[in-house]
Amino acid sequence: MGNELTNLNKMLLFGFILLPFLLVSGPFLSDLITVLSCFYFFMYKKIKLSFELRKKEIIFFIAFFIYLNLNSIFNSENSLISLKVTAPYFRYLLFTLVLIYFLYKVENFKYKFFYSCLICLIILLFDSFIQLTTGSNILGYPIYQNRISSFFNDELILGSFTFKILIILLCIS
């Protein structure tokens, strides 16, 4: 049983390192890695909510989460649709705890994650340059509505994704 958990821990670590690439592929794989890692750490690692974070930040996040959900229930015309949007925000706290666990407990995780983000950004920028010069990218996606989209095809999110990856890179460096 202990060896299986170690293998699962390595698989989730590998998924976390590949997270920038999984985000490019779409929301399913990145959300799957996030949910599986949160489930794994609550079930097997027994992370306490005070792990490596000050209790004030966690209490603030939980209070904000409760505020969002209460606001969705009482101030929305359609409470169920609003709750579908706000209820999953709790996974961001869990995601942060898992990320902090990897940062503190896994040797060289910061460097591996940094280089993963950097390589993903370089590939996106290279593909965008190809799409700009030839009219289509490596996969054959054409320029959509006079905007370069790289691997995102008709989702015009290349700029925001690049900006967010750059922020992560700057924070890690």
Compute the average pLDDT: 82
Largest sheet features: none
Question: Which class of secondary structure composition applies to the elements?
Answer: mainly alpha
The unreliable regions are none
Shape: globular
Number of strands: 0
Proportion of residues in helical segments: over 70%
Radius of gyration: 19 Å
Order of helices and strands: HHHHHHHH
Distance between the termini: 37 Å
Percentage of residues in strands: under 5%
- Count of helical segments? 8
Write out key terms for the chains shown:
173 residues; 0% strand; 8 helices; globular; mainly alpha
Strand-helix topology:
Elements: H1 2-17, H2 19-25, H3 27-45, H4 55-74, H5 79-86, H6 90-105, H7 109-134, H8 158-172
Would you kindly provide a written description of the structure presented here, covering whatever features stand out?
The protein is an all-alpha fold and 173 residues long. It contains eight helices and no strands. The chain is globular. The model has no long low-confidence stretch (mean pLDDT 82).
